Amino acid sequence: MAKRLLIIDDEETLTFSLYQSFILSDNDYEVVTANSGEEALDKIKEKSFDLIVTDIFMPGMSGFDILKIVKDDYPDTRVVVMTAYGSSEKRDEAIDLGAKFYLEKPFEIKEFKKIVMEILG
After folding, report:
1. CA atoms of 100 and 97, how far apart (whole Å)
2. How many angstroms separate the CA atoms of 107 and 1, rounded?
3. Each residue of 26-68: pLDDT tens digit?
4. Where are the domains of the chain?
5. Full-prediction pTM beyond 0.85?
């Protein structure tokens, strides 16, 4: 069965690029994208995901808000946070809140895919 991956970022070009990288090369993943935290929550309520990758800083609901909700309501779902505004404080906060991995932008798509594949097995 395909692993379900949800990618959340307010930058549509990034979510599209990451989506394309999985769809074009690997049929073992069902990839869904959302461009806001609110849109992501609607999708999370519709179906379960094995992994959620979310940007931290987005208008409205932040990635940390998503992380807290997912850890409370869907504890088996793993979460990776990513940000262009990295700091050791944000990394520590993400890990303390239950993130599996903290990824700083910009990153190579190959690096991203490797992290996802390691987490999902």
Report:
1. 9
2. 28
3. 668 899 999 999 999 999 999 999 999 999 999 999 999 999 9
4. 3-120
5. yes
